[in-house]
């Protein structure tokens, strides 16, 4: 019998997390192939042929999506639709496309968290400048985030005195996602919990660099070991389930009122948790994918 063949969707061939997932599969005796979705093609005749470079995607046993990559709205829609079509054809994948989309869209994530009764910061999403102004007055300090933001990019800290920024954002985007600013206890930090299936791999603090309140590692945040509590475990597993991801990075903030979930990352990096704790989430993701096929 041929060994199973897993596709790992990733754009950067040197990506640490994709490498860890690949090694995880190899340890389990499975073969892997990297799929760079910038080399995607679809032929739709009597049948639908979906290929990446010269690989017929329907012949794979399963997909792990590490990162879809994109250069604009057209190709991201194409890449995403290919995933949906493959899923309809019976190819299972983690994470499933609907969950990737829900996790990528901050409004959809907030709705999913709220529906599941998971504590999250108060949030207003609106097309109206008056409503945005009222929300800012209520929150006193607020963060605006791009709907499809990632890696701590394009976040703005707003106060009622600097609402010009808010007007600018609203005009540019046609809407604004505004969230109450949660003050950190000391140095600004958040907690990143890595979830695989119904298990928590581990957690790290991400401490913001001096002078900043944004703690993403790609913005200069430092990963430090974080002892897992029952509250972290419970919230992260519930948030992962609410969004529908199989593996995810759940961002938590500490408040005087307990932990709140900021977001669920559907394509998280496993590097920080490996650096800070020596925990290999790649191996866990590979064995999760294997288990699901059995
Ligand atoms: N409501 C908030 N209050 C305080 N800090 C926040 C808030 N939202 C985000 N941050 C900070 O900004 C970082 C990035 O925010 P997040 O919502 O996770 O977006 P991204 O998808 O860009 O990572 C968080 O990790 C945290 O450090
Ligand atoms: Mg985040």
Structure description:
The chain has helices spanning 16-27, 73-88, 97-104, 106-115, 129-139, 163-173, 230-243, 271-277, 281-293, and strands spanning 5-9, 31-35, 40-44, 48-52, 55-56, 62-65, 93-94, 123-126, 142-145, 156-158, 176-180, 189-196, 199-207, 222-225, 247-255, 258-265. The chain has 3 domains: 5-101, 3-Layer(aba) Sandwich (Rossmann fold); 105-119 and 184-279, 2-Layer Sandwich (D-amino Acid Aminotransferase, Chain A, domain 1), CATH 3.30.470; 123-180, ATP-grasp fold, A domain (Dna Ligase, domain 1, 2-Layer Sandwich). It is α+β, with helices and mostly antiparallel strands. Helix 1 packs across helix 9 (281-293) and helix 3 crosses helix 4 (106-115). 35% of the residues lie in helices and 28% in strands. Strand 6 (62-65), helix 2 and strand 7 form a beta-alpha-beta unit. The protein has a 5-stranded antiparallel β-sheet. It has 9 helices and 16 strands. The structure holds adenosine-5'-diphosphate and magnesium ion (MG). Magnesium ion (MG) binds at residues 216, 251, 263, 265.
Q: What is the CATH C level class of the largest domain, in words?
A: Alpha Beta
The pLDDT mean sits at 94
The side-by-side strand order for the widest beta sheet comes to 14-13-12-15-16
Which small molecules are bound? Answer: adenosine-5'-diphosphate, magnesium ion
Q: How far apart are the first and last residues' alpha carbons, in Å?
A: 15 Å
Oligomer state equals single chain
Largest sheet properties: 5 strands, antiparallel
What is the strand tally?
Answer: 16
Helix/strand order, N-terminal first:
EHEEEEEHEHHEHEEHEEEEHEEHH
Please identify which CATH superfamily of the largest domain we are dealing with. ATP-grasp fold, B domain
Which topology of the largest domain does CATH recognise? Answer: D-amino Acid Aminotransferase, Chain A, domain 1
C-alpha Rg (nearest Å): 20 Å
- Which geometry do the CA atoms define? globular
Provide the domain count. 3
Q: Determine the structural class based on helices, strands and strand pairing.
A: alpha+beta
Strand content: 25-35%
Uncertain residue segments: none
CATH second-level architecture of the largest domain: 2-Layer Sandwich
